Structure formats: structure tokens, C-alpha cells
């Protein structure tokens, strides 16, 4: 009985901790220069109230920071050679390799935002206040099931632009309805699979996992074969091309670094669909899932499919 009580107490404690996890502000200094925020890991961090030289090492934060009008000094080079770099990023912003400590020091940041976990966290913390974010939902986010919007909201909390982030997210949900109307019957009752071509082979990506999955499944509302959905519960699914036909699909969205008509024909044959139903996507641009990128991807997919 005693052991059972201890177990129940541990379970309740874990539930309370998880219920309180998520980005939120907990205080402001007397002079208003710093804010205290609690992260998703229940870690309290002091950050500048008005950061002027932010370094963003996660790809998802770059486009979102631009929407929030953040003052950014450096970004991770994951966005190099993407549509976002060409159309949205100020050319004066420094591109930084992950772990380039000297490069980060050189841009003199007053706030660093990075992945969770990040092996270089202690190095970053010696330079400026550093916040780690994992790609997960938050109980305090109004967009819980939409992970890409939760990332926007979390960034808003860190930058003291929470209200603006929520307004942008709410506006996007309305815009999604207009985009779906403009797409007509393109995705109505249609199934889709999102693939990435990696060095070791092909991988099927699930919902809200970048590479166009947000645009395909959330914005355009394609559905997914139920057996595939079940198989993806454990995470991304490595697959041989000759096994792709086991899953029912009307479209295949394939992320590749180098487009190849021969590859497209082979994929179509293995899936039992026409080449017109195989949509090739730029790997680097589609791996980004900030809100601007998701919108751009949805519009591009509509043009390609129609």
C-alpha cells in the first residue's frame, strides 16, 4: 500500500510539472531592462526586455522572427540557399555554422536562441543569455496541435512579442480557409505521402514534421492512408521505393537536393501513379517550417498540382 501511494504521488507530481511546462513570462526587473521567462523545461532564464542583436540557430525561428520584426544579427546557415534567404532575410544578417563559437562572438549577440538539446549550450551561455527550444507542443500555446504555430508563439514569448505572435497565428487560421477555397477540389478526398531523399535512402514524414508536411496535411488538407498513419506513430519511416505501393496515395511530394526526371518516373512507377502526381520539391527550402515558408509551400504546391 505504501509503495502504491508513492507511485501515485510521483505520477501526480509528473502531471503537475508537465501541466506547468511551456514558455511564459514570470516577471520583469524593476528597471524594465530584463524579463524572466520559464521555458518548456521549467527552467527560468533572464533575457533582455528589448533584444537588439538576436542570434537564431534554429531554421524555424528565422522566418518567424522576420514576421515578428525582431532585431536579428545572425542566423543558422540551414537557411542558406533557400527561398527564405533570397526573399526575406536582410543580406546584412550573418549566416552562422552550428557550433561556430567565434563567429557567434563576432556578431556580439545580446540573446541566443537554439535547439534543445544543443551540445554547445555552455559556450553560448558564456556569450549571451541563451534559450533552448525543442520542437514540441506547449500547454500555454493557443495553437497546441499545430506545432509550427506553437514555435511562432514560443518565439513571441521569448522576444516579448507574444500578443503579436498570437494575432499572426489567428490571422493565419483565417487565411488558411481562403487558401483551401482557392485550391478547390484539389485535395478533397485525396491522399498524399511526403518523402525525403536522404543519403541512406527514402524516408516518409508524418504530419507537422517539416518538408512540406504542414502545407500538405494542415493547410491543403490532404489525408493519409490509415495504415501509414499508424506506422508513423513511432516517427519518420525509412522505406524502400519498391515498398511504397503498400500505401494508398494519390500524390507523392518528394523532397530532393537534385531534381531528376528519371527518379520521378521510378517513384511514380513504384507507387502506381502517374508522373504528374509526383511533385518534386526543393529539399532545403521545404525543410523550413516557419509560417512564411509554410504559406509559400502551400501556394507553390497549388500551382504545381493544378
Automatic annotation (TrEMBL):
Keyword Magnesium on entry: no
Domain Fe/B12 periplasmic-binding residue range list: 53-306
The organism's place on the tree of life at top rank: Bacteria
Keyword Transport: yes
Subcellular location: Cell envelope
UniProt entry keywords in alphabetical sequence: Signal, Transport
Signal peptide: 1-19
Gene3D superfamilies the UniProt entry points to: Nitrogenase molybdenum iron protein domain (3.40.50.1980)
Protein family: Belongs to the bacterial solute-binding protein 8 family.
The name this protein goes by in its record: Iron-hydroxamate ABC transporter substrate-binding protein
Organism: Salinicoccus jeotgali
Lineage: Bacteria, Bacillati, Bacillota, Bacilli, Bacillales
